[in-house]
Design brief:
single chain, alpha+beta, Cytochrome p450, four-stranded mixed beta sheet, 14 helices, binds protoporphyrin IX containing FE
Length: about 400
């Protein structure tokens, strides 16, 4: 591919070796590092070696369960605002709706701002995703070519970086007691303690936006796509929500929403928002008996492994009970959030958000799929629907 040797790793044991057992033998790869350097080179997603390790240790507490619990009320009220705009019988494109909802959640929990008043956050997120939309040829053109996409990307990225710098500066002038709980305030605290540089703070804020927005919106969209085709499953989840939640979903309710958790797991199996990602071998290695020379690009395809009949019975069918108990399949037959030391730091955040939003929606409405049950999908940076996912709303 493009003058480099690449191979696809489709056996869970080999995926585990690359991500976990021998992870130090594999890097993120030069193409990714170079492409994302301007936007988030000093952030967690792109950095490597000691810098990555230090940062991961410093930033990790911001993603501990207790900290994340403080975000659940924002997640709940954002979802409730979405529901308030709905009416019985309406048909909505859930991808659009969930994209807006997750953007609102990120604006509030990352930056402590309302994105409707600060459109730069969502505009920059759009510009970054368009720039790196791997289903379009332009994503392979170098940044320095003045294409319209590159120019817009540059402009919006500059503005976003300025916005983050300004917000961080304002926070530092505030008394720590009154800064609020958003991720920006936590990272500002790390900068003051000398654990993070100002550049690392900025690049991590951009990283969370890039890594956390579209992925979570797609997770929600695909769970709704699956549920809208299975009224019996919806009824089952609604019974669970009624039994567990007393009107408004709280952080304490989330561990008890087990069937909802499994419905999300199963949707992420069938439609993993990150459908493949890459590593580069730093030295010669042997995987499953194949010799892989240093410099080879390895493709780790969730899409293929999650639908492999060797590990999954009737793999095309939505069946959440697969996730009840231990099914005896290899651990890395399922890796929607990656694995090993570089697994998604936002996994718990995303899971909490998806559960809170879905429980809030299911409490008020049932869903019926209007558009194609087998939608076209686009292999972009993430796995995106090719057209609207239209769902009719039926008030409970
Ligand atoms: C359903 C939603 C999500 C999915 C499917 C997802 C998936 C992934 C995957 C597969 C990786 C590993 C990439 C690799 O190893 O090359 C990753 C890494 C990462 N994700 Fe997520 N993610 C989601 C939500 C989030 C959220 C909400 C945030 C932040 C608020 C986030 C932040 C990150 C970061 C910073 C990394 C890099 C971690 C590191 O290298 O130390 N993600 N994600």
């Amino acid at each position: 591919m493009f003058g480099t040797d690449a191979c696809m790793i489709a056996h869970p044991d080999a995926v585990q070796r690359v991500l976990l057992d021998d992870h130090e033998a594999f890097g993120k790869g030069e193409v990714l590092t170079r492409n994302l350097a301007d936007a988030m080179g000093e952030g967690l997603f792109v950095s490597g070696g000691d810098q990555w390790e230090n940062q991961r240790t410093q930033v990790q507490p911001a993603f501990y369960r207790k900290q994340l619990h403080t975000y659940v009320p924002e997640m709940q009220s954002t979802a409730a605002e979405t529901v308030e705009q709905w009416r019985d019988g309406m048909v909505v494109d859930v991808n659009d709706t969930m994209t807006a909802t997750t953007m609102d959640v990120l604006g509030r929990t990352l930056f402590g701002v309302d994105v409707r008043e600060n459109p730069i956050v969502s505009e920059a997120s759009d510009a970054i995703l368009t720039r790196f939309d791997t289903s379009r040829f332009w994503s392979f053109l170098p940044d320095r070519l003045p294409t319209p996409t590159n120019r817009r990307y540059r402009r919006k990225l500059d503005k976003l970086q300025q916005f983050v710098d300004d917000l961080a500066r304002q926070r530092r002038q505030q008394d720590p007691e009154n800064r609020g709980d958003d991720l920006l305030s936590l990272l500002v605290g790390f900068v003051e303690a000398g654990d993070l540089t100002v550049d690392e703070l900025r690049d991590n804020m951009v990283t969370f936006l890039f890594a956390g927005h579209e992925t979570t919106a797609l997770g929600l969209t695909y769970t709704l796509l699956c549920l809208a085709q299975h009224p019996d499953r919806q009824a089952d989840l609604q019974a669970e929500v009624d039994a567990v939640c007393d009107g408004r979903v709280t952080a304490g309710d989330l561990p008890e929403l087990e069937r909802l958790e499994h419905a999300i797991d199963e949707a992420l199996r069938l439609y993993p928002p990150v459908y493949m990602f890459f590593r580069e071998a730093k030295r010669d290695v042997t995987l499953q008996g194949y010799d892989i020379p240093a410099g080879t690009t390895l493709v780790l395809p969730q899409w293929a492994v999650h639908r492999d009949p060797a590990w999954w019975d009737d793999p095309e069918t939505f069946r959440p009970e697969r996730f009840d108990g231990d099914a005896g399949r290899p651990e890395y037959a399922y890796f929607p959030f990656g694995g090993g030391p570089r697994h998604c730091i936002g996994m718990r955040f995303a899971r909490m958000e998806m559960k809170t939003v879905l429980a809030t929606l299911l409490d008020e409405y049932s869903f019926e799929l209007v558009s194609d049950p087998d939608p076209d999908l686009i292999a972009s940076t993430n796995l995106k629907p090719g057209g609207p996912i239209e769902i009719a709303l039926d008030v409970r």
